[in-house]
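Board notes (copied after class):
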Amino acid sequence: MISDIILPRNNEEDFIKMAKSLGYDSLVFAYPHACDVEKYKKSGIHVVSAVLTPTLKKNLNHCKVILDGGEHVREGLEQKRIHYLVHLEQDNRGDSLRQRNSGLNQILCKLAKKSNVKVVLSVKDLTESKGFNKALRLGRIIQNIRLCRKYGVQLKIASFATNPYQMKSPRDLQSLGLVLGMSSQQAKDAIKL
């Protein structure tokens, strides 16, 4: 099922209409807290609820968990409580001489592979960053893609749109994945749920 992860702001119906027109089969509504999406089940689009959280302090057993980068990544991977990792490359830490501090390393990749966690690349972060920060973020994303390819970690590309007009078509997301260094099979799998 071709899917996208979005951040709705009481505009879920508009997102569902846009997803149908773009050719999506599924949407993941990411909220800062657990939310019920039962009323959208008959919309023609498979809708899944997820919690976007920077920590794992809450009891989140009944829905998908998207961990928002940071210092709790290893803890979440070891506890096998998360489904997606996002914003790994956003920290303001400096890069070393021979390697970028992209938020991902071989140990985290092995844990993600073992826990069946997908690393998510946010298109919204790329489109909103400017100048040097955009170049820095692109370099870190490319390094994360290389690490994921090397260690067999699943990747996902998502728009993280807050407005339906920020959504991208599945083909655009797939093409972006190819440009950033994914294999053709990885790019096809990156737009699926």
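Comment from the instructor: The mean pLDDT is 86. Residues 3-189 form a domain with the TIM Barrel fold (CATH 3.20.20.140).
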